[in-house]
Design goal:
The complex is a heterodimer of chains A (390) and B (101). Chain A is an alpha/beta fold and 390 residues long. Chain A is built from 14 helices and nine strands. In chain A, α4 crosses α6. In chain B, strands 2-3-4 form a three-stranded antiparallel sheet, with helices on one face. A two-stranded antiparallel ribbon of chain B has the order 1-5. Classes of the chains: A alpha/beta (390), B alpha+beta (101).
């Protein structure tokens, strides 16, 4: 009858299903792997009125929801007002926070809305592992926010974990924390994007850990969300729940705090910049007319991966992960489970790696400290398509 | 196949009772059919045929799902496949039973 759904999605939709919207580069933390190199607010950030105009446009395009992030979005003084504006205009909101503003009162307010979902970031099941990446005190802040949400009766909020070499052995412990608060665990892939480019070599899971992660995800099925970010692991065999494809510029995208539209949240670089919502025609014109997005929606060749038996499963992996590790976009993912990525990385070792675009890091941010213990030998929003069932 | 993209419900679908789109579900027509998003369960689903979209959109005003299918021009032979698709949608709460008038 028609093309399979995955093909429909690969060739793009007239409007995104959902998108990531980083509202500010300001953040109280300085996580070593921050995708957007956040810290300081950018003076050119969209005003509240401009944000409302974007929301009006998303409503007209029937974008179901936005994944709001940052920086730390809740430090914007107009944040709660914008959330209310979006939900009143039929644009659902999921927002990611480190929990700094989730007081008991705010938690009660969030629990009362059917159209707002909350994601608390946590990158270690213990303060030791978490705070080494996210900064001192961040574990306590996150757990406090979870406590407030649970006490307010907010069921099913998300605990969002970037899987690293150091925390991959804590998956059961993360699950236990989620269960304790009536929350849902969400695991996503560490990308070499933003400041993540500087720490990816030390933090990304080893080949053995990738396998353990895959087995754990298969065992826990749909109880655990992944933002569909581990589709490169599908090459191990059985596909993971969700939509196993890269939706960048096809069904998802990123709007950054100054209104720049990128193909995905992990690709803040000129090469993936499609336009700006302040331009003529606004966001819709960028989505529908950008040359970059048109290119992403054309059939991809698979390049060096095309002859690989796993290509139909992994689709060559994550574009951003390849780009920022200096690999060609039509070659293997750096974490290719067949080992082709590792081999390719050797060939580009020491060569030029593209640098993430823009840096809003705190000027005085501490130098990333070592993670504190030797990586154990046990075992790439975020596709905003999390939860999609193909 | 007019399959809907969610886990199949285990119960047989009752074509002869009134149904409706869940009030928290938003429907977006697409070239291939439609995308559905449930703001309560925060799940996305899809309709793989325009005829299924017509059925889903008219369910709420039709005396039964069977009547909605007939108005959408479906033949007797097509009904079982559509009943299965509707069962799937009911299983994921995209549509829900409506009290008879």
């Amino acid at each position: 009858m028609t093309l399979p759904l995955v093909a429909q999605f690969q060739y793009g939709l007239d409007a995104p299903i959902c998108l990531t919207w980083e509202l500010t580069y300001a953040c109280n933390l300085s996580c070593v792997h921050c995708l957007s190199s956040s810290g300081r607010r950018d003076p050119r950030e969209l005003t509240a009125a401009e944000c409302r105009a974007v929301i009006d446009e998303l409503e007209r395009m029937q974008v179901f929801y936005v994944n709001i992030g940052g920086g730390e979005p809740t430090v914007r003084p107009d944040f709660w007002e914008l959330v209310d504006y979006a939900t009143a205009h039929h644009v659902g909101v999921k927002f990611s926070t480190n929990g700094v503003k989730v007081t008991p009162e705010i938690a009660r307010r969030l629990a009362a809305s059917d159209y707002v979902d909350v994601q608390i970031s946590l990158d270690g099941a213990t303060a030791e592992v978490n705070d080494a990446v996210r900064g001192p005190g961040s574990y306590a802040t996150a757990l406090g926010a979870m406590q407030n949400l649970a006490a307010a009766g907010f069921r099913g909020f998300k605990i969002s974990v970037v899987v690293t070499r150091q925390n991959v052995i804590q998956l059961d412990e993360f699950k236990a924390i989620a269960d304790r608060f009536g929350a849902q665990l969400r695991l996503t892939r560490l990308r070499p994007s933003g400041r993540g480019a500087d720490v990816w070599d030390e933090l990304h899971p080893t080949a053995g850990q990738q396998r353990q992660l895959y087995d754990w995800l298969v065992a826990h099925g749909e109880q655990v969300l992944t933002g569909d970010s581990f589709f490169h692991l599908a090459a191990f065999g059985e596909a993971l729940p969700g939509l196993n494809l890269c939706g960048a510029g096809r069904v998802v995208c990123l709007i950054d705090p100054v209104g720049d539209v990128y193909a995905c949240p992990f690709a803040i670089h000129d090469s993936f910049l499609a336009g700006n919502v302040r331009g003529p025609g606004g966001f819709a014109a960028v989505w529908r007319e950008s040359e970059l997005f048109a290119g992403l929606r054309r059939p991809q060749t698979g390049g060096a991966c095309h002859s690989c038996s796993a290509y139909d499963s992994c689709r060559g992996g994550c574009m951003a992960a390849k780009f920022f590790t200096g690999l060609p976009l039509d070659g293997p993912d750096p974490e290719c489970v067949k080992g082709h990525g590792q081999a390719a990385l050797v060939t580009v070792a020491g060569a030029f790696r593209p640098r993430p675009f823009g840096n809003h890091s705190h000027r005085s941010r501490p130098v990333p400290v070592s993670i504190g213990r030797r990586p154990q030998d046990r075992a790439c929003d975020e596709s905003p398509l999390a939860g999609f069932r193909a | 196949m007019p399959a809907a993209g969610a886990r199949a419900g285990s119960e047989p679908f009752n074509l002869d009772r009134p149904w409706q789109l869940h009030p928290q579900v938003s429907v977006r027509p697409e070239r291939f059919g439609a995308l559905l998003y449930h703001f309560g369960t925060r799940r996305l689903s899809f309709l793989k045929s325009p005829a299924l979209l017509t059925v889903v959109r008219t369910l709420g005003a039709a005396p039964s799902a069977r009547a909605a299918c007939r108005s959408a021009g479906l033949t007797e032979a097509e009904l079982p496949a559509y009943a299965a698709a509707l069962a799937t949608l009911a299983g994921s709460q995209m549509i829900c039973a409506r009290r008879p008038e």
